[in-house]
Structures
1.
Amino acid sequence: MKIPDLTELALRNLRESLLRNSLTTIGISVGVASLVAMLSLGIGLQQLASRRLVKSGLFDTVFVTSRRDLRNYDRDDQRNGPAPGESRILDEPARKEIENLPNVIEAYPDIRFITELRYQDKPHLTMVSALPESAKSNDAFEGMQGSFFSSDTAPEVILQKAFAEELLGKTSKPGSDDVNVAELAKPLLGRELTMRYAQRQGSQSAAETNRNTSTTGKENTLSGAAYSVVSREQELKIVGVSDLDPESMRGPMRAKVFLPLKLGESLHIMQPTDLRELARAASDQPVYSSISVRVRNPKQVQSVEDSIKKMGFTTFSILDATRSLRQFFAVLDLFLGIFGSLALAVASIGIVNTLVMAILERRREIGIMKAIGASDGDVKRLFFTEAGAMGILGGIVGVAFGWAIGQVINLGTNIYLKRQSLPPENFWAVPWWLVAAAITFAFAVSLVSGWYPAGRAARLDPVQALRYE
Amino acid sequence: MTRDKNAIRTEDLRRHYRMGETMIRAVDGISLQVRAGEFVALLGSSGSGKSSVLNLIAGLDRPTSGNVTVQDRDLALLSREELAKYRLHVVGMVFQSFNLIASMTLAENVELPLRFSEVERSKRENRAREALERVGLQARMHHRPSELSGGEQQRAALARALINRPKLLLADEPTGNLDSHTGTEIMDLVREFNQQLGMTVVMVTHERALAERYAERMIFLADGKLVGDQPNPVGAEQVMQS
Ligand SMILES: Nc1ncnc2c1ncn2[C@@H]1O[C@H](COP(=O)(O)OP(=O)(O)OP(=O)(O)O)[C@@H](O)[C@H]1O
Ligand SMILES: [Mg+2]
């Protein structure tokens, strides 16, 4: 028999004992709904847990520090390797090398320092950090007023809103979320700030001035063992006020004032590591305390980390930290899936029961079909189709059902969150693959359930079936 | 292999049923031949094995021993699948209890064999209509069997038996549930199939009168054995007349 005919006959047979088959189908759909509900809860929670982290760009970033940075020295993976004193310095050539690794988008030094900013002749002490141009596309700057730096070297700053409040002399109530960033930004955008900072003047630039007077090169290397620190001032224009909560952000974002990266580098600002590397600093080539490496895809973080480690540096990525989190969710999904499947397993027994009943009831009909020329295969396929139709129908209804449950729960929790004046979140996510997988699974389960009844129907002896009324 | 002029040939056909200790010999060594186009009546008392023989010829059952050859086809050599094809294309069957599927309309019942033989949908409808016209039921096409009289149901069953244009019509007491007038109508139709379509007919009956009126030949069974085989001049005469 052809598939359209099989389907037509199967559906008409299902309609014949509508109540029983509907109940069986509802059983399947309840099973599917529970499976979908359980899994989508797991997926939703997982997404909720990782959404912010992923958005902040944490998952595709590797932080690199030198082994010489003794603060990390008790970590396991460092014990076997060159001693800190012998290992490489995190300097510009190292940064270039890291940037040239496959799958690395960029590697930029973390420039961060505490300094004084003057605004309308009032000094303010705060943490400043430099941002690469790529930070522009970062979701962290979503709610920003004004614009991002016009170029990577422009003498411009972006303020964090708490600092903007400070500049305007407003008292910020800690924890209150209702600060209007737009209002804060209005009087500040376009204004100038003066940054005072300590410039590290290496011997190279000193040598350059020397070169004009002296032609002996030896002196350069001799005098290169030191550098001087000069106090400087830099005028900066306020171009943006960001909505960021510095406490929620990672390393360079924890500052309250941001500079373009190239500008930050060109200023040769004195940083804490400079002191530590004082003995080694043979030139004014900067030595970085840490470098952030952006990887094309979170999946490649591991391999990039491995190659950087091979170069002799210490790495850290959030993937290290979230590995156990992901393990937890994998186990959670497994358990939720098993519980969800239990209901479907019960429903599949319902299919077997319904079809076995149908065979007993339709004994004669099967006998007739065989007498007029139906093959064993025709009968078997007919019962399979009936089982499959119940499975698909139950699957579709069940997915809709599960989705509806999810929507109701999302709605309910969001009303609750709103009452608690918390932002809405979706705990429930039904991805399209889950829809497809649930329906396919229901179909497969129903076919497996149909196996025994269909085989039994096919083997029915037509003479026996037709013998009795 | 030389072509057999016999449509059906059985050789020492046996079908035994084991019922605990005892062995029931429903068919106990029957050898017979039926010529192509012949109209044969199988007679005998209840339990003599008539239905059992018919089912063996129809390929619905397999013999304990002996064999059945239908149109040069040894049924013993056919697989279950091939046997189903044989029933579908070579044999048309009607039963005492009509055996229409209650949930289907007449048209659907009649076209069911066409579904099994995978005939296109568009052709199926026409052929079902034609077959129903042939038995005078075109007006009842879309009725369910329960809405019809016994005679009408048996006519629909005949239309279904006809639909795949088989060479063989096997009828197991087709008039057994009908009054004599309606039974005559059915028998006229069976004769029409036999004479106009050249179908070989084997009909089980225990009404001798009916057999004498329509069959060319009467075969008598008793206790699973062949006890008589006689031509029926009256039935044969009617063949001549037409
Ligand atoms: N499946 C079976 N198991 C046991 N015995 C059977 C079976 N089928 C038939 N028989 C026996 O075989 C014998 C022949 O049965 P069959 O149905 O062929 O008789 P019949 O001539 O058609 O009778 P009737 O005129 O009543 O229809 C009977 O005694 C019957 O009880
Ligand atoms: Mg009988």
Note: The CA atoms of residues 8 and 70 of chain B lie 5 Å apart.
2.
Amino acid sequence: MNRKKDEMLLDVQDLHVSVDGTEILRGLNLQVKAGEVHAIMGPNGSGKSTLANVLAGREEYQVDSGTVRYNGLDLLELSADERACEGIFMAFQYPVSIPGISTAYFLRSALNSIRRYRDESEVDPIDFLEMIRSKVELVGIDEKLLQRAVNDGFSGGEKKRNEILQMAVLDPKLAILDETDSGLDIDALRIVAEGVNSLRADDRAIVVVTHYQRLLDHIIPDHVHVLSGGRIVRSGDKTLAQELERDGYAGLGVDDARAGSRT
Amino acid sequence: MTPEAIDSWTESVRATAQRLNKADDGLRGRREDALQRFQSNGFPGRKDEEWRYTPLKKLVNGPCHQLLPASTRIPVQADLPIEAAARVVLVNGEFQEPLSDFSSLPAGIKIGSLASLRKQDSGAIVDLLSSSFPLQDHPFQSLSDAMLDDGIWIEVSTECRDEVATIHILHAFDGSRGAGSAHVTGIIRCAAGTRLRVVEEVRSEGEVLGNIRWGVALAEDSSLDRVRVIRPGCDSVFHGTRVVQQGGSNFHDLMICAGSNLVRNEVNTIHSGPRCHVELLGVYAARGIEVVDNHTTIEHAVEDCTSREIYRGVLSQKGRGIFTGMIHVHPDAQRIDAKQSNDTILLSRDAEMNSRPRLEIYADDVKCTHGATVGELDEEALFYLRSRGIQLDEARRMLVRAFASEVLSGLDPEELREFIIAELEQCIPESGECAP
Ligand SMILES: Nc1ncnc2c1ncn2[C@@H]1O[C@H](COP(=O)(O)OP(=O)(O)O)[C@@H](O)[C@H]1O
Ligand SMILES: [Mg+2]
């Protein structure tokens, strides 16, 4: 096997994905190494959330062709929960609320599931409480939120911070943040970005999916990709994001107007 | 229902009524009236709106018309984790003094068996029964009245105003020596300003009909908090309650039932003074070909009262649920605030729910909301849980638990709540689809 390929944490080759018979991703390629931060930018409806969800294992999306290798595994063979146990984490663009399950219980169940998968013992409830307190501080949310039902009645900002809290607790190898900046005011954005930055690590890759450049002022990416029409049409370093900010997607020859209504 | 089947029930009822009437306990009139009603009405069929979805055929055509013989055997099941001031045990409808325990009962609470009251004071029992249970055409009430033998009465006097005692009542039905039925009457009376908590448990073994009815009278500003647990493994259970609430009184009722063949639960409460509140909560599960039928009526007869009702069911395999919820706001019963909801999760395509809210509102200044939802587990929520590493089966269990715990959240102590949820979960197959 090619040595260089072995170093990739995530290797997406010629990925074609459709929903309800409509092709959304049309030959997407993406390579991510551990330790890197990638930004995927693109107009609304270009397929950013589709990519994030396909990697997380959402079953409504049909993979028509292409391959996804992750950490030496054929990712497409794994169920959503297996992927999470293997270290993939997606912060949802629209986090789901679950009445009747407390955030703390949810987090502990998730952590224990992952630990069981890895043949590790379940976390001691007291240790868990201590651990979670430090993470709560990191993302700047009220500890009382832990006793409330998952995302139930949370403000937009609280939901997004809760996603980052989950990321901090579950300690993934590959985190995909889908529009984590949307709906955040500037202070919340800074706190979330600081939280993410503190989770940057040599053995972890982060893929930041965003429509706007502003998050990338706080989370400086190593690589920037522009997604349009279901493909990566340009890749570059952080200056590509600045170029986009200046000239807009149209300046890149990417037509924002072709975007679908869903973001 | 075959005519022969009805005949065998009528025969059985008549023979029992005649035997009991020999005691000359003042109840002959009541028994004969009920026998008459039963003889002419029998069991209701599908044409009867109140019983339209309730499958009684198997019970009626089966061998349960025989009375269960006396027994002291309690079906073995884990005990509910509760601490009670008194424990009352009835087996096959008979009060069992040696198995009961009144040693920590507060002085202001009296508990006795109807059988001994019948012997001691026939005037008192006649009064008690006629105020608690008006004679009516109702198949299971008629059976109870025609064969009225034993049961329990609980009286809370103003002496124990400052205490809230918990009484644990265990109805055991032992069909281990053959099929049959038992009929139990219970009466609770709370004096003005008193509070009582009852945890009632039904266990049964074998092919039996456990027919239980309660008459409850709540005086001004009194309150009754009742938890009923119909434990898994029961065959047929009829459980009926009629409550009369005086002004300012509070009736809080929680019904839990899972893993039994056929359960019909009827609650009927009448608000006859202002500022009453009633809370009717229920959580149930049916799998296999089990049926849970909840039938409630709230009579808002006077102004300024409130009611809240939530029944939630989880149906798997070919399990069936029925909910009929009547809210009746009488003319001039102004400023009533009534909320009703009935939510169902269907875990299989073969499961079935019939939900019938019935609102009859004859006053104009009334807030009354109702809603019924029937659906599968929320796919978005399932994916969210799975995307965090939680396996499908556990994710489903968590969502079912969440659904139930919204109703059970007020159930104390926590050990009891956890026990109930765990028992409920055991009655929900991992894959809701497969055959029983
Ligand atoms: N579940 C779905 N069903 C039907 N169409 C979808 C679904 N998800 C996304 N799409 C469509 O796919 C396209 C890409 O959507 P999405 O991946 O959400 O874009 P982005 O996140 O870049 O805004 C849009 O045209 C959208 O309408
Ligand atoms: Mg999107």
Note: Chain A has a mean pLDDT of 91.
